[in-house]
Specification:
Layout (H helix, E strand, L loop, with lengths): L3 H12 L16 E6 L9 H8 L2 H4 L2 E6 L6 H6 L5 E5 H9 L5 E5 L6 E6 L15 E4 L3 H13 L7 E4 L4 H7 L4 E5 L3 H8 L3 E5 L11 E5 L1 H6 L1 H20 L1 H11 L7 H13 L15 H13 L28
Parallel strand pairs: 1-2, 1-3, 6-7, 6-8
Antiparallel strand pairs: 3-10, 4-10, 5-8, 5-9
Length: 338
C-alpha cells in the first residue's frame, strides 16, 4: 500500500564548526552552516544530499549541512521565509509559488525529466490510449494542475478531456483494484516501483507523449535574498550536492546503503530503495543521456512555464490569473553549478 498522505502532499503542493580542510578549493575560513528542507519523507530523490553529507563532500567544501525533515510547512515556504537556506520542491510548486510572490529561485535539477505517469490497472483492456479515459473516474485532489494535465493528455489523443474527480479515501492501488476509480497519477520511480515489487500490474501514459511539456519534476531551490548575500556559499553547497548525486549514479549500492543507514526508521524496505535508485539511474533521470547532472534546461523550464501560464494555472499574490506572461528565465539559475 502506498502512503496516501504522501500522495496528498505531493498533489496539494501543486495547487497551492570544523577547521579548514587543506587543499580544498572551495573551503571557507570556518565551517559554514547550511540548511536544506525536504519535500516529503526521505526517499531516493534525496539520496545526493545524504551521500554528500555522509561521504564528507559537504565537510570538504567547508560546510556543515543540516537536512531538515519534512514538516507540515512545505519546503518552498520555508525557503521563501528564510527558515531554510535551500529546499527540495517540485517544478509546478516553484512556478506557482514564485508567481504568487514567494522569494524562490531553482538552483539544481534533481531529475532531468518527468517522473509522473497516468496509471491504471493493466487488466483494463478497454483503455488503449488516453482518449479512452473520457468519462471515467480519476482518483486525485482536483488541483488546477491535475485538471489541465489530464485534460491535455486526453484531448491530445482525440478525446474531449472530460472526466470525474474523486478524492481518494484509500490507497491508489486499492481504489484502482476495487473499481472506485479508473485511473490516477503516480511517481513512476517510487510508487511505480513499489507496485512492481508488490506484483501489481499496471499500464501507464507518459505526459510528454500527449502534449504536456517535459519537466524536471524535482528541483532544489533557494531564495534570491540568500543567493545574492551568499554566492560563494551557495555554489559550494550546490557543487557538493552534485558530487553526492554523481556518486549515487556511479556507486548505487553504496549510496543506497548510506541512505538507508541514515534513515533506518523511515526506510524499512531496502529492496524498494535499491530498485527505485536503479530506475532513476537506468531511466537517465539523475544523469541525462548527454551527461547533464543537476543542470536545468532553459528550453524545458520555459516550455513548462508557458504551459502553466496558458492553462491559467499561474496566479498573482491576490489569487488572480496572470494576464501577462512572466520572464521564466528569472525563476532559475545554473550559475551555482560552476
Amino acid at each position: 500500500m502506498i502512503d496516501l498522505t504522501r500522495r496528498q502532499a505531493l498533489l496539494l503542493a501543486l495547487a497551492s564548526s570544523l577547521p579548514l580542510i587543506a587543499g580544498s578549493s572551495r573551503s571557507f575560513a570556518a565551517t559554514q552552516k547550511v540548511s536544506v528542507a525536504l519535500d516529503w519523507t526521505v526517499n531516493t530523490n534525496h539520496i545526493g544530499l545524504f551521500v554528500a553529507r555522509d561521504k564528507g563532500f559537504y565537510h570538504e567544501a567547508g560546510l556543515d549541512v543540516d537536512i531538515l525533515p519534512y514538516s507540515d510547512t512545505g519546503a518552498g515556504t520555508l525557503v521563501a521565509n528564510r527558515v531554510a537556506d535551500f529546499g527540495i520542491n517540485g517544478t509546478i510548486s516553484l512556478f506557482t509559488q514564485k508567481t504568487a510572490g514567494a522569494d524562490l529561485k531553482a538552483v539544481y535539477a534533481v531529475v532531468q525529466s518527468e517522473t509522473g505517469r497516468v496509471v491504471f490497472n493493466a487488466a483494463r483492456s478497454e483503455i488503449r490510449s488516453p482518449k479512452n479515459l473520457d468519462g471515467l473516474i480519476y482518483g486525485g485532489f482536483g488541483s488546477a494542475w491535475e485538471n489541465a494535465l489530464i485534460s491535455t493528455i486526453i484531448r491530445h489523443d482525440g478525446g474531449k478531456g472530460n472526466f470525474e474527480t474523486v478524492t481518494l479515501g484509500t490507497s491508489a492501488y486499492e481504489a484502482l483494484a476495487n473499481g472506485s476509480v479508473d485511473f490516477t497519477l503516480e511517481v513512476s520511480t517510487w510508487e511505480g516501483i513499489e507496485a512492481e515489487l508488490k506484483g501489481v500490474k499496471q499500464r501507464s501514459f507518459v505526459y510528454a507523449d500527449y502534449g504536456v511539456p517535459d519537466e524536471h519534476t524535482t528541483l532544489i531551490s533557494s531564495s534570491e535574498a540568500y543567493l545574492q548575500a551568499n554566492p560563494a556559499l551557495a555554489s559550494a553547497f550546490v557543487q557538493a550536492t552534485r558530487r553526492g548525486y554523481q556518486f549515487a549514479v556511479d556507486h548505487p549500492g553504496e549510496a543506497a546503503a548510506l541512505l538507508i543507514a541514515a534513515n533506518k526508521d523511515a526506510l524499512t524496505n531496502p529492496a524498494l530503495i535499491e530498485a527505485s535508485l536503479k530506475s532513476l539511474i537506468d531511466g537517465h533521470y539523475l544523469r541525462a543521456k548527454d551527461g547533464a547532472l543537476g543542470t536545468m534546461d532553459p528550453a524545458k523550464m520555459d516550455a513548462i512555464g508557458d504551459y502553466l501560464f496558458t492553462a491559467g494555472i499561474l496566479r498573482d499574490g491576490d489569487g488572480k490569473i496572470l494576464a501577462q506572461r512572466p520572464d521564466f528565465a528569472k525563476y532559475f539559475s545554473n550559475s551555482a553549478l560552476g
